[in-house]
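tool_call predict_complex ligand=zinc ion
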Amino acid sequence: MKRMVRLLKLTLAAMLAAAFFAGCGSFTAPEPSPADPAPSGTASENNADHEANNEPIEEETPPPAPPLPPPTEATLIAIGDIMMHTPQLPGAYDEESGTYDFSNFFVQVRSRLTDADWAFANLETPIAGDERGFRGYPTFNAPAALADAMKDAGIDIVSTANNHTLDQGYNGLAHTLETLRERGLAAIGTADSEEKAEEITFIERNGIKTAFLAYTYGTNGIPVPKDKPYAVSLIEDERIIRQIQLAREEGADVVAVSLHFGNEYQRMPSDEQKRLARLTIESGADLVIGHHPHVVQPYELYRVEEDDGRVREGLIMYSLGNFISNQFGDYKEYGAILEVTFRKTYNEDGTAETKIVSYDAIPTWVHKYVEKGKNRYRVVVLDDLAETGSDVLLSQRMVAQLIQKSEEMNKHLDQYAVEAGAEPAAPPKSETGEDNPSY
Ligand SMILES: [Zn+2]
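tool_result ok
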């Protein structure tokens, strides 16, 4: 792996050196003195010009190195499970037009997602077409309007590899991919052809080329079709390692790996999650975006010492929790927004390096409320609520309880950073003094 990275850098250096010499020859090539025999026609002409004009011949100094390109930065935002349980449907349905509108889910996170350079989400439901009927658990099928709302909210990359991928069979999977593609959303982790399964998704922003990979632990016991083994990208160490290597060979500055893994409703990562996520970083990934437990698990900045002694840092978000769902209680209504900023810098030798320069995990909360006799859902960003201190749809008592919950969630998210003696990503909020809430 590391050999290949170095090889790539050498190739890049050679290309840049070639470009450098080709570039400087056209405007600063040293001219021969009149006494020297002219080595070429062009030089001879230049020579003749000098003689005719009687210009003094000055000794040329070596050309200055061209300035290095300035560093660039780009920010990735990731949100967790987008679920569509049956109770979420009626409130989004307009009887007059016969259409669904799910934009309310995203209304408070839209500006963050649209401002980001990459916005990722895990789509935990097929979008298999109207004729099958829409339903929630256990075999999901959501309206295509969900994809419209995701697109409108600024999401541009979607993992479709999770345990509900095959809820509506292979045709449901293929219909989901078509629906996402039609709206310009990149889907990762499932495929409707062998070629597409092997193709790595790259999205470049501000000169930073990011590869996106996605895998799931399984498909709820629904077998992957025997004649289409490529349809779902399952977690297999060798496959993950190989695809990370491939992404690097194909010029990825950043490799982000989405893993649908872990144990449901467990607020701390399992040993297997830690093993796999760390192996993913050791294999060359920069970021692990974890989801599936339906509750938030902490993040971890994982350091890998390379053969040459350099230390590389990768970020593991073990579980983003539910972004939107009808699951409540035992922390299932809390999620996290992960924000990671990468900076690419260029070296004198023509190589470039991309590193994580900042990150944050921001707790969210699903607000279910009744409007015109129907259940409505929206995601509230708790740090934003703490900042404004009020919300038109929430009582002040509820706001105070949520601000306290926000502190608790921030502590939960930051606990590995605190353990490691590092600054937590999100500074702790001031105490509110409220009692432990229950709602
Ligand atoms: Zn899941």
